[in-house]
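residues and backbone:
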Amino acid sequence: MGDYFRHIKARSGHLQAMVATGKKMAGIFYTMVKNKKEYDVSIYAKSKEKTLERRIKKLQAKILRLQNEQAQSGLKVTDGTD
């Protein structure tokens, strides 16, 4: 939950992060009470894993796009180790 809070805080500020995190926690609590189940951490872990996989896929696509642009422009870009 802390990761979620920090992510929202960076995007929208402290107050909105507090409200969004509280709303998320309230939704989790409501679902737990309604379904009479304990909190399952594995659900959050799976969600986080999927998010990371999507992020990796997006970054790989961005790298490929930038490499194609570099090849089309004919510019040689070095990594600065020369």
